[in-house]
Amino acid sequence: MKASKMMIATLKEAPQEAQISSHILLIRAGMIRKLVAGVYNYLPLGLRVLHKIENIIREEMDESGAQEILSSAIQPKELWEESGRWAKYGPELMRFKDRHQREFCLGPTHEEIFTDLVKNEIKSYKALPINLYQIQTKYRDELRPRFGLIRGREFIMKDAYSFDVDEKGLDVSYKNMYQTYSNIFTRLHINYQVVEADTGAIGGSESHQFMALSDIGESNIIYCDCGYAADEEKATTLDDTYKNDEEELELEEVETIDKKTIEEVANYLNVSKKDIAKAVVYSVSNKPSLFLIRGDREVNFIKVCNALNAAEHEVYLSTREEIEKYGSVEGFIGPINSKMDVYVDSELAKMKNMIVGANKTNMHIKNVNINRDFKAYKIVDLKDVSENMPCPICKKPLKKERGIEIGQIFKLKTKYSSAMSCTYLNEKGVEVPMVMGCYGIGVSRTMSAIIEQNHDENGIIWPLNVAPYHAVIIPVNYKDENQKKLADEIYETLKANKVEVILDDRDAKPGFKFKDFDLIGIPLIIVVGKRASEGIVEYKTRKENVKEEIDYNVAITRVIDKVNKEA
Ligand code: ATP
Ligand code: MG
Question: Which residue of 133, 405, 412 sits with most ligand 1 atoms within 8 Å of its CB, as the best mutation to test the pocket?
Answer without folding.
Answer: 405
